[in-house]
Amino acid sequence: MNTRMPTYYLSHARGPWPYMEGPIREQFRLLEQSLRDIPRQLPHTPKAVLVVSGHWEEDEFTVSSSPHPDMVYDYNGFPEELYRITYPAPGSPQVAERVVDLLTSAGWPARSDAWRGFDHGTFSLLSPMYPTADVPVVQLSIKKTLDPIEHLLAGRALARLREEGVLIMGSGHSYHNLRDWQRGDTKLSAVFDAWLRRTLLESSPYARREELADWETAPAARAAHPREDHLIPLMVAAGAAGKDPATCIYGEVLRGAAASSFRFGADRTPTGFDRLAAPTASHA
């Protein structure tokens, strides 16, 4: 039995949606179902979850190391009670130290941060996955450079964690043009989503790395990501994946824009949470 953890790149959607009720919550029903299914896809319960958060940028890779992380309410315009919610999962100073060691050993300056709490890119994913909050969680920042090659290589340096029972998840969104999203002009989201699927699902491991490193040349790249903070966590997940193949575990038109999530490694059986058309062989 293969006990190595897969890696994931997950679209985390809007704000604290798992803590909402009514029609707004219902918009994210398929996404929630796909997240609840992830523990079933794993070989065993993780020792810890390492979340690479698109909502945390630092000059160098930084890891949350508090044994009891606080909350970061990094969203605006929601009801007051959503600024009092908690996701009480423990942290793991030991895993945080291991992450720093692996990164620095690979030549990447890295440090720990004992004050950083969980932002919504972390707790909005983990609340459906582990609602009892009993799995330790550590966050890893992205670098302000937003350099895809740096993050692919950092992911490669962290790949050993998969053998050690740590689940690596990149948290962002496969489409993140908030201005166009708000005005309903999201037709190019499907163009970029098709490229992303072809790249992840059909390319060889070498070609996948090359295309991700050069993602800005993809069709509709800057229309989908005017700023790539929500795409960069994918690079860490793909770097840690090595040669493992990818599977699309979730896809739909979410609030008007194509959104997808991916797993690298382990079972490639479709999960049933992908409503978008499969990519074609054409790159036109």
Proportion in β-strands? 15-25%
The tally of beta strands, per DSSP, is: 8
What is the name of the CATH class? Alpha Beta
Topology as H/E string?
EHHEEHEHEHHEHHHHHEE
Computed over alpha carbons, the radius of gyration is: 17 Å
Given the helix and strand composition, which structural class is it? alpha/beta
Q: Biggest sheet, in brief?
A: 6 strands, mixed
Helix content: 25-40%
The first-to-last residue Cα distance is: 40 Å
Please tally the helical runs, counting DSSP H or I stretches of 4 or more residues.
Answer: 11
Second rung of CATH, namely the architecture: 3-Layer(aba) Sandwich
- Broad shape: globular
Q: Total domains, how many?
A: 1
| Average pLDDT figure | 93
- CATH topology call: Protocatechuate 4,5-dioxygenase, Chain B
The CATH homologous superfamily corresponds to LigB-like
